[in-house]
């Protein structure tokens, strides 16, 4: 589908601007005669029974309008469907005023030229048209999931009976589209959870413009992955490499996954892990591009910490310099009583661009020892801290952020089903397990809070469970809630809380607060409160209070 800017420039270059309006309303050229012989079948234009007509051929067509999407806020045109054969086509008419764009179910006789856009056959450069009464547009029932069916029904009106899940909302604010699923929320196959079927199908908004406002398909600006949609009726088409439906009737949504309140905390210690998605004070770095955006990031993070009230934070993707860590600590301490102030547990830095940090409240925990592991397997150095509670109980917390799944090499550690660099992540796990086993007081309760960039059924995580560590999300979180991340419509957890046997008895509750993965990416720039302040969800671990 063309963009309005590209096609309008083409139209001007051809010297035909305004011709549609002039001919259709003033009759400069004879209007097509309704019902006259000589109309070209859509099947012939599309090549459904032979070779498609070449671009630039003037044709006359009589068909029903199956969907109208006028103007720059739409698709700059409308769809036609044949009354005599299973065929549909898009008519590109950017200079046809909204009021003059024919309504759905209008029988239309139109003279236009064949054209191509991104390989898709369409009609364009409208010469004249006549309205020839009305007809009935009956959408074809579509059973989603079969691409061969999609191809057969391309550019035709369809309907989907029954309920579909919203698998992903990432591009909702950018392009107005939602990814659909059947049978519930889809999970990554390595997450160990049976979920729904992710479909190669988007629910679009009848437009290809960027940043549509108000954001479509929302109520009060909210639509989350895990919600449901009923009675989808619209035009099935393929554009920009994806199958999509442009609604001709408003979809009916059910908010099955409303925004949840912060988990209430118990009387014991609370520990929280979160990937911050690049907390940078350097504006030339990977974080917020402007000071205003950075202040917004800071305020939203402050709101998260105030809502959860943790005694310890394991945070990843913090710019690797002392000034940024100080900035982060000062942010969290600016609005808290001195008794609740945070302190960084580990000084010094490695060579990576980003780092993991552990922040703690000295009034609730005293730091005994702290260390970093320098090992060639690690792009970012893991850290471990030994703490003591006022009651004298000791435990250790390790934090790590493993090699990402992207940036595949040309050969070697390529994606074989566990993302790129799976061999290296497995080597990182083994190195870290050996390192932690050799630390002083190796029998001390130990909690590993890490973004391993690996799903639970992958080798990098399996190394930990083989070594005797316990996956706390698998033990405490129900299967359909076991996710902290959503990648292309598949949920799963790359973020982990792993405990050795000595730590298990201290765990009171483990929860994920789904504030990010289920939200549209545009909220990172425009949202308020804690919603989509990162692309990962926080993991919250509450410990039992000490027994007297």
Automatic annotation (TrEMBL):
Keywords: Endonuclease, Hydrolase, Nuclease. NCBIfam families: ExeM_NucH_DNase. Residues 246-266 are annotated as: Disordered. This is ExeM/NucH family extracellular endonuclease. Residues 288-536 form the Endonuclease/exonuclease/phosphatase domain. One of its GO terms (molecular function) is endonuclease activity. Pfam families: Exo_endo_phos. The lineage of its organism: Bacteria, Pseudomonadati, Pseudomonadota, Gammaproteobacteria, Chromatiales. It comes from the Bacteria. Gene3D superfamilies: Endonuclease/exonuclease/phosphatase.
